[in-house]
Amino acid sequence: MEVRPLGRTGLPVPVLGFGCGAIGGLLVKGEPTDQRRAIERALAAGITYFDTAALYGDGLSEASLGRAFAEIGGLPDGVMVGTKVRIDPSDVAHAPGAIRSSIEASLRRLRLDHVPLLQLHTSITTLRGRGVTPADTLGPILDGFLAVRDAGLVTHLGITANGDTAAVREVVRSGAYASGQVMMNALNPSGGWPGHAPAGGHDFSGVIADAVAHDVGVIVIRSLAAGALAARGDRHPNAGRPGGIAGEDYATDFERARRLASLAAELGLEGPAELSVRLAQSTPGVGTVIVGFSDIGQLDDAIRWTSRGTLGPEAIARTLHAVSG
Description:
Largest sheet: 8 strands, parallel, barrel
Number of domains: 1
Distance between the termini: 33 Å
CATH class: Alpha Beta
Number of helices: 13
Helix content: 25-40%
Shape: globular
């Protein structure tokens, strides 16, 4: 498994990260034995970063992760868990207390005394309401993040780079946060490839380049567009309901993903899912690509795809043209 540095955190992250969210659903709805087997399989493949959040399954993801690691003898050396805290936009003034309460509860569920990365799980928007503003994020929210860092509960601070692109960029450029989770996939690669937003879709305007310029580590999320790029018809029983990210519409994304199947075949790939994961992997500045799993077979697929390395220039160009050409 290729390992890359996560910006100025210096954390060594695998190019493929294990997504523990509710959309893949394995760590929320899966059987405990299947969860443990998948984690053991991931560790054997060199996956050392597990991405979770208090919001995933209302704590179930963190609890499942903590139990599984306890069953295999604890968190192995060099393995990292990153989690997140959501701040209610209507109660930003109390953010420091909410952050402290959230991370303490997360650590209890994870059975850890600290995590290397805590990330804001709220969209950053120009106006408060749909999300929190840059002033919120660099004010009371940052105060709360710094307090839990100073208390030794977390090491590095990050954001979810979703919301209004201008607002997200303001926070990225501030240098206050060391990592950013950026939505990017073959249906909307605009976060890493400016000028290639889909017609009518959200334009992330190359925010990854801003992150790189300010030494902010990049974690790609939604690499399979909430499962639409798997293009397999009915959703897996463990899979959760898609939604929540700017510009996503599952039905539309599913149909667009089906149209990428012929391009993937021409490029000698297994399908749109491989094309998307490897496009993200090939984007300059990306540290790790998070993929969520519903079962161990999907994990094996992602391991196989990423092991094949980055896409060549022609494959990248043809994919970008298919999106916006």
